[in-house]
Amino acid sequence: MPVYLIKCPDCGHQFKSLVMANTQEPKEWVCSVCKSRLAKPIFQYTSEHPLENSHGAGCPCCGENISK
Questions:
Q1: For a tag site, which of 6, 18, 27, 42 has the least CB within 10 Å?
Q2: What is the pTM assigned to this prediction?
Q3: Residue 37: inside a domain, yes or no?
Q4: Residue 68: band (very low, low, confident or very high) from pLDDT cuts 50, 70, 90
């Protein structure tokens, strides 16, 4: 499950988004602040999402501790 850092060119807001395994990346990303449909991924985290492994060190996309 890739986690992307998304940036809106209209308002400058940056946010993270998770794309579930076996699904397609969205054709259009919507800014959660200004609702612009021009937001684009600027970075993709390369490590596994914590829900895909058992390290339990926390979630890079929400910052919460996840334990299995």
A1: 27
A2: 0.65
A3: yes
A4: very low
